[in-house]
Amino acid sequence: MQGHNISDIIEAYLKQILAESERVEIKRSEIAELFNCVPSQINYVIKTRFTIQRGYLVQSKRGGGGYIRIEKVKLLDDRDMLDTMIQLIGEQINQRDALVMVQKLYDDQVIERKEANLILAATSRDTLAVADHNLEARLRAHILVGILNHLRYERE
Amino acid sequence: MQGHNISDIIEAYLKQILAESERVEIKRSEIAELFNCVPSQINYVIKTRFTIQRGYLVQSKRGGGGYIRIEKVKLLDDRDMLDTMIQLIGEQINQRDALVMVQKLYDDQVIERKEANLILAATSRDTLAVADHNLEARLRAHILVGILNHLRYERE
DNA sequence: ATAATGATAGTCAATATTAGTCAAAGTTAA
DNA sequence: TTAACTTTGACTAATATTGACTATCATTAT
């Protein structure tokens, strides 16, 4: 999954630390130097890979002694997570973000592997086969929300 | 089948690697250069020779460090029935007929109860929420076919 | 206290680096 | 001859990288 470019490598590095600990705190410039990239690339990595959808909370401080802190967040229960996801989806969602959500549901054992794959099949671009991408994203959102709602009450 | 043209040769090259390994990961431009063809020919080869029907799964990423990954998947015994169903569905299907199909999948133990309910949720009129009934039926057909295609093989 | 300075991090848009799509043109085989 | 298949390239889309400019915070000087 990783290792094809610097962003992937930085992502892996941070996640390795997060596998041991609940949070990681870095100094942006140090990480940039460590991986031989510009500081703003760290922001790019965080923005694309440590989103709330994926279960991460990011805080930072500027100025002297500044830092970036990434924290794994834990939603209280499945119901809570499903509600949050439904909110996050809103009116449309692209395939990548949908994958992230399904992955999170699987990681947190809300759904099984086969169910996860069914959902991905149902919401893939190939399946929807709509020319207009905006419409496609809206449809995907509807289907995903429909499924999440179903999961929401099935578990009660 | 044999090396009558470049597409066949590229196909053979990739399949030779896949004979040793479960997956092959390429950089499109490199392969194109290796075989002295335009990059989009690689897409053509993949589209015509590495389909899910033949037991291959393809993933890719664009941008820096991009790649195309081809994976062999194990096709399951149920695939004849699934193929028949896919044919039966055609371009559109109503909710009642979809229910019949899902029921059959459950009866034949291709899917579990939870999975069946999930599929029904994904294809219900409420979820699809399109005004035009014809469009709704077409969309349902696409989703169902997408799901059936994914049931044809075993996932990691 | 307040202002100036230095040390951080954030934003955004330009550029770079890939892969995907599509249709026209060319080739082959029935 | 014609229908299917292959080749090609112009255009599009997605993702990554970079750097100039901005915002915020802590410390020091006035």
TrEMBL record, chains A, B:
Limits of the CtsR C-terminal dimerization domain: 77-149
InterPro entries associated with the record: CtsR, CtsR_C, CtsR_C_sf, CtsR_N, CtsR_N_sf
Top-level lineage group: Bacteria
Keyword DNA-binding: yes
Entry keyword Iron: no
Residues in CtsR N-terminal HTH domain copies: 5-74
Keyword annotations of the record: DNA-binding, Repressor, Transcription, Transcription regulation
Protein family according to the UniProt entry: Belongs to the CtsR family.
Protein name: Transcriptional regulator CtsR
Source organism of this protein record: Loigolactobacillus binensis
